[in-house]
């Protein structure tokens, strides 16, 4: 069951744009704040917040019951 959830999570992440993948990875797996991740990527913090919100919505839609 856990490997199925991990496989689905990886597939959902792969469905995002490369820039959104990087943002989500920095925030979720690396523990960066949105502001820190924005600096790394080279975008404004408010843009990062909006992108992260959209990326999370997309991930929830892809994962369905797993989200």
TrEMBL record:
It holds the Pfam family Sigma70_r4_2. The keyword Transcription regulation applies. Residues 11-59 form the RNA polymerase sigma factor 70 region 4 type domain. Keywords: Sigma factor, Transcription, Transcription regulation. InterPro entries: RNA_pol_sigma70_r4_t2, RNA_pol_sigma_r3/r4-like, WH-like_DNA-bd_sf. Coiled coil: none annotated. GO terms for biological process: DNA-templated transcription initiation. The keyword Chaperone does not apply. GO terms for molecular function: DNA binding; sigma factor activity. Belongs to the sigma-70 factor family. ECF subfamily. This is RNA polymerase sigma factor 70 region 4 type 2 domain-containing protein. It comes from Cryobacterium algoritolerans.
């Amino acid at each position: 069951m856990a490997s199925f959830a991990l496989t689905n999570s990886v597939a959902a992440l792969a469905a995002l744009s490369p820039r959104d993948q990087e943002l989500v990875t920095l925030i979720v797996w690396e523990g960066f704040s949105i502001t820190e991740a924005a600096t790394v990527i080279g975008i404004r913090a408010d843009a990062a917040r909006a992108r992260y919100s959209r990326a999370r919505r997309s991930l929830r839609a892809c994962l369905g019951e797993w989200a």
